[in-house]
């Protein structure tokens, strides 16, 4: 079974409907987590694959991890502002399967971190929480940009992620990571030895609608110190980051 999870809130209602329309027919079940809503949406009631969830509190982007999906074969995570192609799920599943049986989490938005300092001494001092004025440098493999090959990365964006249900993190682990779920998910993958992979795609295959209240502009662009410290728990701690993976059917 292929399951999709998507979290949203009222200002994104119009784009939510576009996203749900695009992906609901491509999965067996689509969980839609309705943050800040008092009732389910009638326009989604007629879509057989959609299960609407009203959380007891505003889970924000962590809501993508609220449903229990451990028995699913594959779980895909969606964002309410992305525009997904009509073959998105079948294409993504095929690419994921071509990575082989090793535990993986894959997606079309990847991050490779570099040390946030001029020297290792300065970096180690920062990592030990003695300094708060440094932030991680990173190379971003953006979902809108072309990528010719599959690459091992430190972190994937959960708006375009696919993972086996058996490798999916429990909601309790993700709680408290509002606005930095990608970082917390990357930490989970590091702890569980789940390889993270940026998947190849042509330029413009994925795109998004523009909003002023994006998490990137309001939070990620200048991560708080506690998020940078969480990144330090997995960044620069694995070999092969940035290396190419040969797809099995290539």
Q: Could you please describe the fold and organization of this structure?
A:
The protein has 250 residues and is of the alpha/beta class. It has one domain: Spore Coat Polysaccharide Biosynthesis Protein SpsA, Chain A (Alpha-Beta Complex), CATH 3.90.550. Helices cover 24% and strands 22% of the residues. The protein has eight helices and 14 strands. The chain has a nine-stranded mixed beta sheet, sandwiched between helices. The longest helix has 11 residues. The radius of gyration is 18 Å and the shape is globular. About 3% of the residues have low confidence.
Q: Provide the helix percentage.
A: 10-25%
Tell me the CATH architecture: Alpha-Beta Complex
Mean pLDDT: 91
Side by side, the strands of the main sheet go 3-2-1-4-11-6-12-9-14
Stretches where pLDDT is under 50 for at least 5 consecutive residues are: 214-220
* CATH superfamily annotation: Spore Coat Polysaccharide Biosynthesis Protein SpsA, Chain A
Structural class: alpha/beta
Keywords for this structure?
alpha/beta, three-stranded antiparallel sheet, 250 residues, nine-stranded mixed sheet, 8 helices
Quick recap:
The protein is an alpha/beta fold and 250 residues long.
Helices and strands in order:
Elements: E1 2-8, H1 13-23, E2 29-34, H2 42-45, E3 50-53, E4 74-78, E5 82-83, H3 88-97, E6 104-107, E7 110-114, H4 120-127, E8 137-141, E9 150-152, E10 155-156, E11 161-164, H5 171-174, H6 181-191, E12 195-198, E13 207-208, H7 215-218, H8 225-231, E14 244-245
Parallel strand pairs: 1-2, 1-4, 2-3, 6-12
Antiparallel strand pairs: 4-11, 5-13, 6-11, 7-8, 7-10, 9-12, 9-14
């Amino acid at each position: 079974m292929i399951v999709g999870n998507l979290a949203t809130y009222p200002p994104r209602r119009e784009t939510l409907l576009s996203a749900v329309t695009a992906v609901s027919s491509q999965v067996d079940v689509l969980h839609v987590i309705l943050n800040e809503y008092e009732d389910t949406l009638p326009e989604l009631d007629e879509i057989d694959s959609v299960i609407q969830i009203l959380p007891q509190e505003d889970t924000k982007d962590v809501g993508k991890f609220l449903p229990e999906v451990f028995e699913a074969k594959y779980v895909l995570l969606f964002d309410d502002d992305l525009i997904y192609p009509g073959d998105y799920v079948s294409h993504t599943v095929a690419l994921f399967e071509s990575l082989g049986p090793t535990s993986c989490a894959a997606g079309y938005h990847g991050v490779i971190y570099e040390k946030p300092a001029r020297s290792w001494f300065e970096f180690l001092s920062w990592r030990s929480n003695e300094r708060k004025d440094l932030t991680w440098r990173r190379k971003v493999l953006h979902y809108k940009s072309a990528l010719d090959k599959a690459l091992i990365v430190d972190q994937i964006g959960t708006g375009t992620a696919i993972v086996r249900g058996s490798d999916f993190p429990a909601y309790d682990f993700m709680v408290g990571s509002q606005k930095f779920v990608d970082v917390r998910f990357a930490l989970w993958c590091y702890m569980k030895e789940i390889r993270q992979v940026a998947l190849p795609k042509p330029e413009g295959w994925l795109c998004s609608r523009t909003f002023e209240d994006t998490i990137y502009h309001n939070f990620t662009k200048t991560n708080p110190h506690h998020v940078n410290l969480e990144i330090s728990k997995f960044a620069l701690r694995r070999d092969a980051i940035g290396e190419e993976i040969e797809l099995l059917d290539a």
